[in-house]
Amino acid sequence: MKDIYTLFRHSLAGLRVLVALTLLLGLAYPLAITGIAQVAFPWKADGSLVTATGQHTDHAGDAVGSKLIGQVVDDEDLFQNRPSAAGDGYDMLSTYGSNLGPNNPDLVASIKDLKAAIAEREGVDPSDVPPDAVTASASGIDPDISPAYAEIQVPRVAEVNGLTDDQVQQLVDENTDGRDLGVLGEPRVNVLELNIAVVQAADAS
C-alpha cells in the first residue's frame, strides 16, 4: 500500500512539473518573446513584409513578399535570385539544401549548365559567374544574392528597363547590406527590394 501511495505521490509531482513547464515554456515564454519583438523589432516581428510600388505592377500597395524569404522572379526584366533546392519555387514547407557533395556528378553537371545559361543571359564569360548564382543556399530560401551576381545583371536590367548602367548600379549599392555587426557574414543584396527599386526607377524615367 505504501508503494502505491509513493508512486501516486511521485506521479502527481511529475504531473505538476509538466503542467507548470507547459504553461511557462509553451505559453508564457512565447507570448513574452512575441511582445518584446513587437516592441523592439516591429518590422521583423510581422515577417518583414515588403510592399509593392510602381505603375508597372498589378499589386501596388499590397505585400508581395518578405525581406527574409527568397522567391522565384518570373519577370525576366528584373534581377534574378539564386537557385533553390527547397521544393518547387522556394517552398517554405520544405526548406533544405541540396545535400550534394562538391564532387557529386549531378551537382557538377547542374553547376556547369547553370553557368552556361547565366553567362549567355548576361553576356559574360562563364568564369565571371559567381558561385551563388549556380548553387542553392543551405536553407533553400535565401532572399539575397552577392554583389558580384547583382553586378553582372546590371547591364541587362538597365537596358530592358530604359535605365543607365550607373542608375541601376546605384540601386544595387543602395540595396546592399554589409556584414552583420561589421564582421559576420558577407555583403548581400536583397533581390525583392532591389527589384521594387528598379520598377520605381523605370516608372520615374
TrEMBL record:
Decide whether keyword ATP-binding is in the record. yes
The regions listed as transmembrane in this protein's record are 12-32
Where is the protein found, in the record's own terms?
A: Cell membrane
Among NCBIfam families, the record links this protein to: kdpC, PRK00315.1
Going by the UniProt record, its keywords in alphabetical order are: ATP-binding, Cell membrane, Ion transport, Membrane, Nucleotide-binding, Potassium, Potassium transport, Transmembrane, Transmembrane helix, Transport
Role this protein plays: Part of the high-affinity ATP-driven potassium transport (or Kdp) system, which catalyzes the hydrolysis of ATP coupled with the electrogenic transport of potassium into the cytoplasm. This subunit acts as a catalytic chaperone that increases the ATP-binding affinity of the ATP-hydrolyzing subunit KdpB by the formation of a transient KdpB/KdpC/ATP ternary complex.
Task: Fetch the InterPro entries from UniProt.
Answer: KdpC
Give the similarity note: Belongs to the KdpC family.
Q: What is this protein called?
A: Potassium-transporting ATPase KdpC subunit
How does the entry describe its membrane topology? Single-pass membrane protein
User: Which Pfam families does the protein's record reference?
Assistant: KdpC
Under the subunit heading, UniProt states: The system is composed of three essential subunits: KdpA, KdpB and KdpC.
Predominant cellular place of this UniProt entry's protein? membrane
